[in-house]
Amino acid sequence: MRRHKTTKPMRRCIACRESKPQEELIRFVLKGQDPVVDTDGRAEGRGFYLCRSEECIRNAVKRKAFNRVCKRNLDEKEISSLIGQLSGSYQGGMDVKES
Predict the structure, then answer these.
(1) How many other CB atoms are found less than 10 A from the CB of residue 95?
(2) Is 45 left (phi over 0), alpha (psi -120 to 50) or beta?
(3) What pLDDT digit, counting tens, does each position of 54-64 carry?
(4) N or C: which end of the chain has fewer CB within 10 A?
(5) CB atoms within 10 A of CB 86
(6) Tens of pLDDT along 8-35?
(7) Chain centroid to CA 45
(8) Where do the domains of the chain lie?
(9) CA proximity to 62, closest of 86, 98, 12, 28
(10) Residue 95 or 80, more confident
(11) Distance separating alpha carbons of residues 98 and 77, to the nearest angstrom
(12) What is the CATH number of domain 10-89?
């Protein structure tokens, strides 16, 4: 009997564009047109992923990656709110300020 090799799902970070195992990334989902952090990874909607590093979070803001994946322009308040959700949702408190 043949055994199938189980592989972990890979996802691509919107900032650094590297593919990594899904559990190593933060998942966001669009609720309507608004992006929110999906802490349990099961929310319905179009999902996109970001590395858990502060550098990738800064690069996503700097390069307007959130605007690209949401297909609309997010204002500074919306992006700040999204980054604020990160620091409240994940251990280590990813405190990132917009540059």
Answers:
(1) 11
(2) left
(3) 999 999 999 99
(4) N
(5) 21
(6) 899 999 999 999 999 999 999 998 888 9
(7) 13
(8) 10-89
(9) 98
(10) 80
(11) 10
(12) 3.30.1230.10
